[in-house]
Design brief:
This protein is α/β, with parallel strands linked by helices. The chain has 2 domains: 2-231 and 290-339, Luciferase-like domain (TIM Barrel), CATH 3.20.20; 236-289, no CATH class. It has helices at residues 13-26, 42-45, 47-52, 70-83, 97-101, 110-125, 163-172, 183-197, 221-230, 236-239, 241-244, 250-258, 260-268, 279-289, 298-311, 324-335; strands spanning 2-7, 30-34, 57-63, 88-92, 133-134, 139-140, 155-160, 175-178, 208-217, 291-293, 315-319. The longest helix has 16 residues, at 110-125. The chain is globular.
Length: 340
């Protein structure tokens, strides 16, 4: 299994470049930039790293076809791929925060829409849009010639939280990028990806399986838990009961669901203090759905990552937060040697 990192969206291109070069030196497979609604453009922000690096892959996570037409996604992806000499990749999904910020609607047939987007992007990357594309939701009405794209095809992931989306993406994408999925629920996700893989028309069985996993391992355990609690509102499909019930009693699940806005408040006030939620429940959420703790917890986290690998994941993307260099140094020195 290969280890990737995901960076915050507010880092400058210079900061991304510095971190990316350090990650490349450690042997990280890919660096992903986050696509948020009022931050640095993720494609442009990677160009400095694209010019100065040689091996590390460069990814954008995630782009929705409802915020950017698939044809324009393909243009940006292929441009970055040419600049980086064939190291670009992207994760395409339904989208959340960006759509809310722009007051954009999504169609009822979301899985179909994402499938058509993936097909258009993949066809563009294979220069197979010379006759356009006619879909129910997305179309390309003029012939498009991508003969200018000379590098090898970029990797196109689909993002998925639900099994229907996983099955579709296992069938049409290069890889499936799943959300924070602990080992207890990973097997069912991979089973659904496999259902899609068995229906592929291209004969390619090497479908990548990546997942977002939050990294909050620090030298200071108290700071690690504070940072992790701050981000909990966006873990486990926004703390959905179907995931929580694997680890918590019904009463605890109801308490977490009833106080979800307190988790959101802790994110926006950056405090990590979740009002009216027992801190032990909050800290257990951190341990279940993220890697949280100090250096003494590294052994158990590496064991969990090995379990991901054994179950069939090909990649694991560790999301860095405050002080990303310190986090990357721990990953590079203590984690990566176990996955060479």
């Amino acid at each position: 299994m290969k280890i990737d990192i995901i960076l915050e969206p507010d880092l400058t291109p210079e900061e991304i470049c510095d971190l990316g070069l350090l990650a490349e030196n450690y042997g990280v497979d890919s660096v992903w930039t986050s696509n948020y609604f009022s931050h640095w453009d993720p494609f442009i922000s990677l160009t400095q790293l694209a010019n100065q690096s040689r091996e590390i892959k460069l990814g954008i996570l995630a782009v929705s076809p409802f915020e950017m037409h698939p044809l324009k996604i393909a243009n940006s992806l292929l441009t970055l791929n040419e600049i980086s000499q064939g190291r670009a990749q992207i994760a395409v999904g339904a989208g959340e925060g960006n759509l809310t910020a722009m007051n954009l609607d999504t169609p009822k047939k979301i899985v179909l829409a994402v499938r058509e987007a993936l097909e258009i992007i993949n066809k563009a990357c294979c220069n197979d849009l010379k006759k356009g594309y006619e879909g129910e939701i997305f179309s390309v009405s003029l012939p498009c010639d991508y003969g200018w794209a000379k590098q090898k095809k970029p990797i196109v992931y689909g993002t998925a939280y639900r099994h229907m989306m996983m099955r579709m993406e296992g069938r049409v994408a290069d890889g499936v990028y799943i959300g924070a999925t602990p080992p207890e629920v990973l097997e069912e996700a991979i089973d659904n990806i496999q259902i899609g893989k068995e229906k592929r028309l291209d004969g390619n069985e090497d479908v990548l399986i990546n997942s977002f996993w939050a990294w909050h391992i620090k030298s200071d355990k108290e700071e690690a838990y504070k940072e992790s609690r701050r981000e909990l509102a966006w873990r486990a499909r926004k703390l959905e009961k179907s995931l929580l019930q694997h680890y918590f009693s019904d009463d605890e699940c109801e308490e977490i669901a009833a106080k979800f806005e307190s988790f959101v408040d802790a994110y926006f006030d950056r405090s990590g203090n979740i009002k009216d939620i027992d801190i032990e429940i909050a800290n257990k959420l951190c341990r279940v759905f993220t890697s949280t703790g100090d250096l003494s917890d590294l052994e158990s986290e590496i064991a969990r990552f090995k379990q991901f690998e054994k179950m069939g994941q090909t990649h694991l993307s560790l999301r860095l937060h405050d002080d990303p260099k310190a986090a990357l140094d721990i990953i590079g020195k203590e984690v990566l040697p176990h996955f060479k």
